[in-house]
Amino acid sequence: MRKAVWLLVLLALGFSFALAQPRTVKIGFVSTLSGGGAALGIDVRDGFNLAIRLLGNQLGGLPVEVLAADDQQNPDVARQAVDRMLKRDRVDFMTGIIFSNILLAVGEAIFEEKVFYISPNAGPSEYAGEQCSPYFVNVAWQNDNLHEAMGQYVQTRRFENVFLIAPNYPAGRDALTGFKRFFKGRVVAEVYHRLNQLDFSAEIAQIRAVRPKAVYAFEPGAMGVNFIKQYAESGLLREVPLFLPGFSADSDVIRAVGRALVGIYNSSQWALELNNPVNQRFVEEFRKAYGRTPTLYASQGYDAALLLDTAIKAVGGDLSKKDELRKTMLAGFNSTRGPIKFSPNGYPIQNYYLRQVVQQPNGEIVNRLVGTIFTNHRDAYVDRCRLR
Amino acid sequence: MPPSLLLEQLLNGLQFGLMLFLLAAGLTLVFGIMDMINLAHGSLYMVGAYLTATFVGLLGNFWLAVPLAVLGTALIGMLLELTVLRQLYRRDHLSQVLATFALILIINEVVRIIWGSQPLLLSAPEELSGPVEILPGLNYSAYRLTIIGVGLLVAGLLFWLVNRTRVGMWLRAGASNREMAQAMGVPIRPLFTLLFGVGAGLCAIAGAFLGPILAVQIGMGESILILAFVVIVIGGIGSIKGALVGALLVGIVDTAGRAFLPLLLSQVAPPEVAANLGPALASILIYLLMAAVLFFKPQGLFPART
């Protein structure tokens, strides 16, 4: 009898605790955390977790629970993880995906559940134009953007012609489309290869045979490390200048490739030395927490958490107000790149910078901010999106 | 098409083919002599690459690290044979496939626990990281040339071992008729263990030299294992000569396909179609080659068993 009473008391206490607990916000974080694209996913994850920790393990005043899963850069694995998080865990937001082919495989399922997807990286043109969704916001860029900036820069350098190379997947095609939108010279060849190819001997031989005036390569993750190394080993780097998007020139790639990168120009929406308080805090805290220099990927993960924080705060923690959430997110937030706003399709309106990898007098190799290529640049697809 | 492009692609194909040969040689002997399908062969290639990266990190010297890694992998291979694989010789092929597939998963997970899930960095030795001029006006990566040299050297040693030594004679006897060889007093059990060690060592050489070109990562063995199987099917199971010819064929066809098919297609089709179709066609080319060889020579080009 006494046991039963104790049990009741405990139960009552338990319930009252459960009631007193404020609602938590559940985030489903699916990203590439193993294999050749792991460096990207890990940087995004570390940036995202750092922001949450600095916000006191809260987003907009609500305690946070992050459920993380590795998609192994495999659409099937990603689909299973996303289904589990949507149906069983009932997450409030999703984020984390690196590769556009993975995002395109799971996006519809997320939007159908009316769950917001905050993209820290993948920005396929499909979701910018006809297939745009009110539940999609990208804090980083539309896939074309960094390449548009590089196309513009190579154009101003008046190169007669250029050789383009990218992996054969949605973001690869977006990349070269973006480059060609602003580069007006001749494209001598546009080579697409298998995604995650690591040996570029055949492509490099082709470049040598064609003798272009410049090469532009979009090779995210381990593909970039291998391409640049092999391009340098073949001796071509000394003869034909190589231009890259910022993905292949930040501290992670510098660590792997080393001196071959020195002198290379690249484009980015973010830079280490951007002079604003959010960025300064981010860079300092990231170095302190992880002992390495952050990349643009890490800044994107960090910004995804900041955007969520701003939006949840604006609706007073009431996550059922979906329209209001969307409105406050599109109205913008204070990011590591300063204040940025979004187009109706959920893609950012922001500046794009030119950077150059240089070796400092003390021997350290850094990616330095050189200038601004575009100011308040929008993506090219927003007019095709029916959302206003 | 300039001749320098042809020559460079030929060298690329040769380099890739020779490394494939190192993998296929062990695989074909194990398959031919022990009648054993070992899917975990690719895992030994991965272990070899990881050990090389680890020893390079510890010693700071690629040329010291490679022999250590080869030795280490050979020991691991022999240990695997003594403990697990020996139990499988009498089973049917399906059991062998299932058990060695389980080994792949286990080894992948062990590697993940020891080295983590991010790829390891392994760079070519500093003195080989530049180009060399092989013909006037044609530069080629010094490291890839070295790989070709090492591949030829190891292939030569293997041929000497198989064709000129007593152990090699036992191997050839075992490959052409196992029961007869056993009846004639060939010490099959220790021979098998030794063979496994040699196969694992060859895998490690391929892993060590391909590591800096590709990536040292989990799952690197599975993708190349499929190619190694294509090689031994083309070359004929159990035949070292077949493995060499098959590997060079696959290496050259694969490289040439990737380089020239998109070029050819872009002459006849619009660029977007060529860009999409080229890589897809190139990647099925070696399977077409395999199908063609099987159609005309169902036993492969150089069958060991007659």
UniProtKB/TrEMBL annotation, chain A:
<keyword id="KW-0732">Signal</keyword>
<protein>
    <submittedName>
        <fullName>Leu/Ile/Val-binding protein</fullName>
    </submittedName>
</protein>
<comment type="similarity">
    <text>Belongs to the leucine-binding protein family.</text>
</comment>
<dbReference type="Pfam" id="PF13458">
    <property type="entry name" value="Peripla_BP_6"/>
</dbReference>
<feature type="domain" description="Leucine-binding protein">
    <location>
        <begin position="24"/>
        <end position="358"/>
    </location>
</feature>
<dbReference type="InterPro" id="IPR028082">
    <property type="entry name" value="Peripla_BP_I"/>
</dbReference>
<dbReference type="InterPro" id="IPR051010">
    <property type="entry name" value="BCAA_transport"/>
</dbReference>
<feature type="signal peptide">
    <location>
        <begin position="1"/>
        <end position="20"/>
    </location>
</feature>
<dbReference type="InterPro" id="IPR028081">
    <property type="entry name" value="Leu-bd"/>
</dbReference>
From TrEMBL, chain B:
<keyword id="KW-0813">Transport</keyword>
<keyword id="KW-0472">Membrane</keyword>
<feature type="transmembrane region" description="Helical">
    <location>
        <begin position="142"/>
        <end position="162"/>
    </location>
</feature>
<keyword id="KW-1003">Cell membrane</keyword>
<keyword id="KW-0029">Amino-acid transport</keyword>
<feature type="transmembrane region" description="Helical">
    <location>
        <begin position="68"/>
        <end position="85"/>
    </location>
</feature>
<dbReference type="GO" id="GO:0006865">
    <property type="term" value="P:amino acid transport"/>
</dbReference>
<feature type="transmembrane region" description="Helical">
    <location>
        <begin position="97"/>
        <end position="115"/>
    </location>
</feature>
<feature type="transmembrane region" description="Helical">
    <location>
        <begin position="44"/>
        <end position="62"/>
    </location>
</feature>
<comment type="similarity">
    <text>Belongs to the binding-protein-dependent transport system permease family. LivHM subfamily.</text>
</comment>
<dbReference type="InterPro" id="IPR001851">
    <property type="entry name" value="ABC_transp_permease"/>
</dbReference>
<feature type="transmembrane region" description="Helical">
    <location>
        <begin position="277"/>
        <end position="296"/>
    </location>
</feature>
<keyword id="KW-0812">Transmembrane</keyword>
<dbReference type="GO" id="GO:0022857">
    <property type="term" value="F:transmembrane transporter activity"/>
</dbReference>
<dbReference type="Pfam" id="PF02653">
    <property type="entry name" value="BPD_transp_2"/>
</dbReference>
<dbReference type="InterPro" id="IPR052157">
    <property type="entry name" value="BCAA_transport_permease"/>
</dbReference>
<feature type="transmembrane region" description="Helical">
    <location>
        <begin position="216"/>
        <end position="237"/>
    </location>
</feature>
<protein>
    <submittedName>
        <fullName>High-affinity branched-chain amino acid transport system permease protein LivH</fullName>
    </submittedName>
</protein>
<feature type="transmembrane region" description="Helical">
    <location>
        <begin position="244"/>
        <end position="265"/>
    </location>
</feature>
<keyword id="KW-1133">Transmembrane helix</keyword>
<dbReference type="GO" id="GO:0005886">
    <property type="term" value="C:plasma membrane"/>
</dbReference>
<feature type="transmembrane region" description="Helical">
    <location>
        <begin position="191"/>
        <end position="210"/>
    </location>
</feature>
